[in-house]
Design brief:
three-stranded mixed beta sheet; elongated; mainly beta; single chain; 7 strands; HSP40/DNAj peptide-binding domain
Length: 135
C-alpha cells in the first residue's frame, strides 16, 4: 500500500492547543479574581438607607460602585518598561468608582434586596446586591 507524502503528518499526533476562550478566561481570572462568584463576575454588596417617605414614594439614589478595571497606565501588565507600575502598584488592575443613578421603586420595604448587574466600559461584569434599610 502506497502512502501519500503528507499522510505521516496526521498519524497519531495529538496537539492540545488551548482555545482562545480558555486563554481569555485565564487572563480575566488573573486580573479580576478578588470577590468573584462562580460565574467569574465580581459581586458588590451595599446598604441603602431610606426614610419611610422615600420608601413609600420611590427615590433615585446615586451610588458609587467600585469596579475592577485594567490599569490605564500599564495596560494590565503591572510594569512600565522595567519598573513596577506606580499607578496600580504592579497588580495590573485597580478599583475605580463607577457612578450609578439607581431608581428604587415605590413601596419598597425594610430588608428588601435589589439585585442587578452592571457592565462598565473596560471592566468585567459586576453583580450588585443592595439591601434596603428603613429605620
Amino acid at each position: 500500500m502506497r502512502q501519500e507524502p503528507h499522510d505521516w503528518l496526521c498519524d497519531d499526533i495529538v496537539v492540545d492547543f488551548p482555545s482562545m476562550a480558555g486563554v481569555v478566561a485565564g487572563m480575566r481570572r488573573s486580573f479580576f479574581d478578588a470577590g468573584d462568584d462562580a460565574e467569574g463576575c465580581a459581586t458588590h454588596t451595599a446598604e441603602v438607607r431610606l426614610t419611610p417617605k422615600e420608601a413609600g414614594e420611590g427615590v433615585h439614589v446615586p451610588i458609587d460602585l467600585p469596579v475592577r478595571q485594567t490599569c490605564p497606565m500599564c495596560g494590565g501588565r503591572g510594569e512600565v518598561w522595567s519598573e513596577s507600575c506606580g499607578v496600580c502598584a504592579g497588580t495590573g488592575a485597580g478599583l475605580l468608582p463607577h457612578r450609578l443613578d439607581l431608581r428604587v421603586p415605590a413601596g419598597v420595604h425594610d430588608g428588601a434586596r435589589l439585585r442587578f448587574s452592571v457592565c462598565p466600559p473596560f471592566a468585567p461584569e459586576t453583580h450588585v446586591e443592595l439591601h434596603i434599610a428603613i429605620p
